[in-house]
Amino acid sequence: MKITHYTTIESKQFDTGPAKGVTGRVAIGRADGAQNFCMRVFELAKDGFSPKHTHDWEHEILVHRGEGEVFNDGKWSAVSAGFVIFIPGGEEHQLRNTGDEDFVFACVIPKGVQEL
Fold it and tell me: Helix (H, G, I), strand (E, B), or coil: what is residue 89?
């Protein structure tokens, strides 16, 4: 069993090319013995964004803090703390921070995918 605050987990910064102001953490993954899924926590700084991309696997996302938007099907949809997002495999998507504080969300991906 693992019980810890996500901010104590080692982070990786993404701030080049298609991403800006992104901090990612593997909250629960292979190293913890997770056999089916990986949970990641991302923080997007003010004006930060993830890369616009597609892949074969789905995402399940829970917005923890802040305000942002999700790009899907050619349009942006506003989200904030408490929203859940399901992105099926093969759909182009991107998240961006539209607020004044960090936009924080947890993202679940299946095993076999690069964790971070």
Answer: coil
Chain-centroid distance of CA 87 in Å reads 11
**pLDDT(17) > 90:** no
Task: Tabulate helix, strand, coil % of the chain (nearest 5).
Answer: 5, 55, 40
**Domain architecture of the chain: domains with CATH:** 6-110 (2.60.120.10)
- Please tell me the pTM assigned to this model: 0.95
Q: Which of 69, 76, 67 is nearest to 103 (CA)?
A: 67
Residue 16 pLDDT grade (very low, low, confident, very high; cuts 50, 70, 90): confident
